Structure formats: C-alpha cells, structure tokens
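Q: I'm building a small set of examples for a reading group on sequence design. Run inverse folding on the following structure and report the sequence directly after it, with nothing in between.
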C-alpha cells in the first residue's frame, strides 16, 4: 500500500514567524530540521500502520526544504519546482491515501502563518463557491484522482477548517493559535509522538475515508491583495474581472484551476 505525504512548514511544532519559513537565515535552518523530523514521524507511523511504500512531497515555498540526508530511508522524496500537481505531486502514482503534515489555515483566518498558496498575491480563493485554503484546494485535487485525505496536522484553526471537508480523516492539533504569529505549541518531541500515533491510526481508517470531490466545471473565484495584482492577472485572457480585486475563471477540472492559480502566483513575483 502506497501513501503520499505532503509536508508544509507553517504548521510544524515551534514554527510561528515568517522568518522560520524563509531560506537564508538560521531560524529557517532549524525549522527545516523540525519539518523533516515531523515528516519522519509520520512515515514511521504510516509504516507501523501497514503502509509499504511512501512518497514524501516537499510542499513549502521552493519545494526544497526537507533535508534529504535526514529523511527516513523508506521514503522517496519529491523535491523542487515547478511541477504540475504542486503540493499533490505523486497523487497520480497509485496511492491509497494522502497525509498533510505541517499544514495551516487559509488566508484571512486567525491561524498561525495562515495563507493560501501565496500570501503576497491571494487574499481569498473559492472553488465552486466554497472558500478553501491549501488543504481544501489540494484535497480536491487528490479527490479528482480518487484519493482521500486520510491524515492532517497543523494548528487548531487548520483542524477546525478542514475536518468538515475530510470528516473521516485523522486531523491532529500540534499548536493552538493566539494570532498570526503567536500561540501555544507542543514541544517538537511530543509532537513527533502525536504525529506517529495519528498516522498509524489513519492508515487503519483508510477504508472509511472518501475522496473530497468537487464536480466540474470548476468555477474559481479569487480575491487579490491589491488592484495592481488584479490588473496583472487579467493579462491572462481566461481571467474575468468582477471588481477591483475580485476575479473569476472557469476550469474543466481542479487540476486546471490549480495550474492557473500557480501560474498567477508565479506572475505575481513581477510586482514584489
Ligand atoms: Zn508553506
């Protein structure tokens, strides 16, 4: 049984500040070790639960944060960008379930380091009138491949936001948010035990989990963080402008919508 583990960094124990999520400083170097350790705990748990093959997808920023030399030897790592399926690369390799590790709440929520895909570019994203964060958007992409989200970890806001989307998944709370950059975290060591136990239990519950499926055609609505970004995004002919900062486009699949969003995210670097 093959399992895909997608690992972000904002929901990892002990991570509260943007500096810990950006390359080029010592805080980040520590945080990526914590991220790798959490991935390893989930890999251990999944193997103990009965998984026989593990793909681990580095899903933060430039997609090269996990330290390959410290990664569990049983896992194959998917690293680097761009890639067509982004945070869900590997979901098309015959996996039985997806695990989301170190995830976070959507943009405009009160969660720790909450954002959706690109905090500079997107204020809010809706698919078929449902406002979603990264877990929801990429969970729907997995759903399109018939694969359920079976496990997730992050702060309390992430859990509260996503349990309704993935009702049978085991979602574990690693931190409690007081605000965007503050809250209470399990110690990294305790977090590893919680992650391992949760992952093991989640494998046993796979038969009860159903994929999160959004029926096409997909209508994607998005709100930019500034009118200048909306001006830029409207250069792409499929984008229609609703008002200063609200845009919409229709997509034949979730994958199509995700690829457009990631293209817009890449375009936004022009205005940084
Ligand atoms: Zn991230």
């Amino acid at each position: 049984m093959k399992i895909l583990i997608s690992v972000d960094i904002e929901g990892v124990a002990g991570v509260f500040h943007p500096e810990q999520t950006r390359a080029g400083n010592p805080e980040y170097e520590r945080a990526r070790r914590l991220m790798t350790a959490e991935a390893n705990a989930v890999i251990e748990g999944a193997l103990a639960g009965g998984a026989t093959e593990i793909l681990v997808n580095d899903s933060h920023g430039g997609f090269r944060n996990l330290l390959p030399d410290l990664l569990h030897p049983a896992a194959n790592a998917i690293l680097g960008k761009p890639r067509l399926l982004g945070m869900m690369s590997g979901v098309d390799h015959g996996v039985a379930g997806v695990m989301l590790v170190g995830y976070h709440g959507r943009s405009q929520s009160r969660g720790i380091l909450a954002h959706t895909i690109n905090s500079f570019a997107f204020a809010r994203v809706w698919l078929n009138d449902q406002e979603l964060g990264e877990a929801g958007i990429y969970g729907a992409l997995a759903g399109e491949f018939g694969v359920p989200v079976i496990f997730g970890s992050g702060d309390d806001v992430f859990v509260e936001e996503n349990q309704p989307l993935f009702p049978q998944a085991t979602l574990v709370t690693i931190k409690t948010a007081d605000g965007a950059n503050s809250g209470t975290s399990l110690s990294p060591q305790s977090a590893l035990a919680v992650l391992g136990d949760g992952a093991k239990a989640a494998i046993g519950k796979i038969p009860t989990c159903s994929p999160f499926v959004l029926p096409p055609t997909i209508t994607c609505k998005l709100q930019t963080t500034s009118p200048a970004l909306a001006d830029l995004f409207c250069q792409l002919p499929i984008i229609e402008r609703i008002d200063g900062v609200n845009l919409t486009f229709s997509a034949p699949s979730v994958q199509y919508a995700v690829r457009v969003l990631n293209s817009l995210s890449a375009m936004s670097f022009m205005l940084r």
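The chain has a mean pLDDT of 98.
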